[in-house]
Amino acid sequence: MKLKLNKKYLSFYYEEMADQVLDLKLDLKKTALMVVDMQKFFLAKDGADARAFKAAGQWERWEPYFDRIEQVTVPNNKRLIDCCRKNGVEVTYGRIACLKDDGSDRCLVQSTVGWNNILLPISNPEVAMMDEIAPVGDEIVVNKTTDSVSLGTNYSELMRNMGIDTIIVTGVVTDQCVAGTVRVLADHGFRVICVEDCCAAPDMELHDMELKIMNIVYCNVLECDDVIALIEEGAKEN
Predict the structure, then answer these.
(1) Torsion, CA 218, CA 223, CA 227, CA 229, rounded to 10
(2) Cβ 2 vs Cβ 221: under 8 Å
(3) Beta carbons of 95 and 144 less than 8 angstroms apart
(4) Which of the residues 8, 81, 170, 196 has the least number of beta carbons within 10 Å of its own beta carbon?
(5) Contact 218, 186 (CB under 8 A)
């Protein structure tokens, strides 16, 4: 399938590619979807993060992010997940969940003071994915105490065992756990697609900049509609 490059996400290194066309094909038997950290704790408007922002008088600042999650990110993830399930693409999930109630098993990235001080024991019901996009059946869910799914778990090994060579990445937040996952997957030798409108960050400038930095070198940044079209094309060929 031939796709025009999104000029918005071309960095200095790749500006000369603005008029080029991507020719992408997916072997669906070798493709998986990874949904990163789309958990109630972080994303539900009545979840722990939202409650904390409201209690601290910061809701006005954070509300646009939660609106994007509700109106764009979750609906597009649902569309993509439904498409993957229909066409035989493996759906997988990575989520933040420490095994110790006190969080002593967390890496430093998730136990420092400030935004990254995430204490989410696996016993907390809000560790679950948002209801609309929750895993079904035997879909793989890996638990991490790091930002990168593929560094903090045996996810890459599992995918290799299953013959997967291409991973479609969605989730939150774009400039942290999504970016960490994309970069390590790329270093592990996978072809990676990051779906722009299936991701979100509290600051859209950070969202756009991170995607611009990663595009071409670590992944191909595409829109949800384009990825669905790629999958549907792959289904016809298979």
Answers:
(1) -150
(2) no
(3) yes
(4) 8
(5) yes
Task: Tell me if 89 sits within 8 A of 34, measured CB to CB.
Answer: no
Say if residue 204's pLDDT is above 90: yes
pLDDT at 143 over 80: yes
Residue 58: how many other CB atoms lie within 10 Å: 11
Distance CA 201, CA 72 (A): 12
Q: For residue 92, what are the β-bridge partners?
A: 34
Averaged confidence pLDDT in the chain:
95
Cα 235 from Cα 238, distance rounded (Å): 5
Tokens 């950070």 identify what position? 206
Report whether 60 contacts 50 (CB < 8 A).
no
DSSP bridge partners of 143:
95
User: pLDDT by residue (tens digit) across 40-68?
Assistant: 999 999 999 999 999 999 999 999 999 99
Percent of the chain beyond pLDDT 90?
A: 90
What the block records as the tokens of 204 is 């859209």
